[in-house]
């Protein structure tokens, strides 16, 4: 596999943020497929669409993270199923599928977010 063990870089997007979830496979994995409701082991990077500022990265912490999909934002719940272990996928998540509209109390409320996710395992 190509660069899945390395932290990705996200190019600054051009144009207005999308109003619907955008799912793009950067690397298609050949392992087991993530099902809705699965627990996933991932490395991920998150940046704000408008500024390109990084707000979170498992690479910076030096370890992957296990999450039950049902505990994550709707954009991940919709954007990860169908992904295969060994793959790298980019999700562009509008506010409605992330942390809600501006003023919602979360520091990322009202923001479109970009995630690059490496799927390392599913259970």
From TrEMBL:
The keyword Transmembrane helix does not apply. Its EC number is 5.2.1.8. Keywords: Isomerase, Rotamase. It is an enzyme of class 5 (isomerase). Residues 37-123 form the PPIase FKBP-type domain. Gene3D superfamilies: 3.10.50.40. It catalyses: [protein]-peptidylproline (omega=180) = [protein]-peptidylproline (omega=0). GO terms for molecular function: isomerase activity. Residues 1-20 are annotated as: Disordered. Residues 1-10 have a biased composition (Basic and acidic residues). PANTHER family: 39 KDA FK506-BINDING NUCLEAR PROTEIN (PTHR43811:SF19), FKBP-TYPE PEPTIDYL-PROLYL CIS-TRANS ISOMERASE FKPA (PTHR43811). Belongs to the FKBP-type PPIase family. This is Peptidyl-prolyl cis-trans isomerase. It comes from Naasia aerilata.
């Amino acid at each position: 596999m190509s660069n899945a063990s390395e932290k990705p870089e996200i190019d600054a997007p051009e144009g207005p943020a999308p109003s619907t979830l955008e799912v793009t496979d950067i690397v298609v994995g050949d392992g087991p497929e993530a099902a809705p409701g699965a627990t996933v082991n991932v490395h991920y990077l998150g940046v704000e669409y408008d500024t390109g500022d990084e707000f979170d990265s498992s690479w910076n912490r030096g370890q992957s993270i296990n999450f039950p999909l049902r505990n994550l934002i709707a954009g991940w719940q919709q954007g990860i199923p169908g992904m295969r272990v060994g793959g790298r996928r980019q999700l562009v998540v509008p506010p409605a599928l992330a942390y809600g509209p501006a003023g919602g109390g979360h520091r990322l409320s009202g923001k479109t977010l970009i995630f690059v996710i490496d799927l390392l395992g599913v259970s």
